[in-house]
Amino acid sequence: MNQILKKVVASYLVFAMTIQLVLVNGAHADEIKNPASPVLHEKISPLAVGFGNLLVPGLGATLQDEPLTGLTEAALEIGSFYGGTSMGRESRFKIDGSIDIPESGSVGRAATARVLQQFGLKYHFYNTFYHYQQAAIADEESERERNNPQPLYRGTWKDVITAPFQWDNLKSNWTWPIVLGVSAYLIYDYSQSSVTLRRSGLSGGDQTVYGASELIAIPVGSSFGEDPLFRGFIEREARGYTGSLWLAVLAETIPFALLHEDHVTSFLVGSYFGIEADALRGDLGPMMAAHFWINVVIGALDFFQMRRAIGKEAPLNPPVVIQFQLPIF
């Protein structure tokens, strides 16, 4: 991020935290005056809860009479993300954060920063879906909820975490064909590519932290945070308001693709997952499994490339290219 953008974001976060603190203080004051009454309005639309939390971390919980939970969530999300931001060099913001892995020297600090950003972002994504989900359940007798063509995903955080390992999800025809097909393409592309030799080696600790970032943090973040937010919340709300599957798929796929490095591939994958959410009547389990394992393959190939770049053996051993610059006189 450039300095101007950092100042804008910092000001916004101060504003967001101020809102949280004001609501918390107001909630306590209201409880003292009338302990038997709910702190905030009973009926707030799921859409307002979801987008409120997406824009202001923790606001979803606060709007549902849990202001201290909201403040805790905001502190964890903002603290971990910007704790990571302070530890490494940044580039363009993407769905996995903004930290660059340096081309020379140690990568342990940058990889740790990436993990922290992952936690902050994807925890925020999941909390946005969760508070939307709870608001939709509370409003389930309304005409709008009953008539939404996409049923609400009602899985708990445990269901979301274990979804990539559930056999029913893995054997789904929506899961294994895309995982095998995308993996075959990625492995072929990797085998045909070359790797630039790094100007310095990496310690065992560097390799471990980098591997954990690529093989654990990013895959878990993709299934735990991205699918509930984009398909479970944004697509479902767009479907409920427009009644159109294609408009709903575009509503979740466009931001999903823009936040990824490869816009075209991400657009195709996001569209596939959006159609899948409709075909499976809102069940996000199979897509979480597919998303997780595709990112595991990507992470493994990135890790193998890193090992080749420091002169180590790795599966398929793509050729190493040495780059150097002639001095200019």
Per-chain topology:
Layout: H1 3-33, H2 46-55, H3 59-63, H4 67-85, E1 90-94, E2 97-99, H5 108-138, H6 143-147, H7 157-162, H8 167-170, H9 176-192, E3 195-196, H10 204-242, H11 245-258, H12 263-279, H13 285-309, E4 320-321
Helix pairs in contact: 1-4, 2-5, 4-5, 5-10, 9-13, 10-11, 10-13, 11-12
Protein model, in words:
Helix content is 68%, strand content 4%. The protein has one domain. Helix 9 packs parallel to helix 13 (285-309) and helix 10 packs antiparallel against helix 13 (285-309). The longest helix is centred in the last third of the chain and has 39 residues, at 204-242. It has helices at 3-33, 46-55, 59-63, 67-85, 108-138, 143-147, 157-162, 167-170, 176-192, 204-242, 245-258, 263-279, 285-309; strands spanning 90-94, 97-99, 195-196, 320-321. The protein has 329 residues and is mainly alpha-helical. The chain has a two-stranded antiparallel ribbon. It has a two-stranded parallel sheet with strand order 3-4. Residues 324-329 have low confidence and may be disordered.
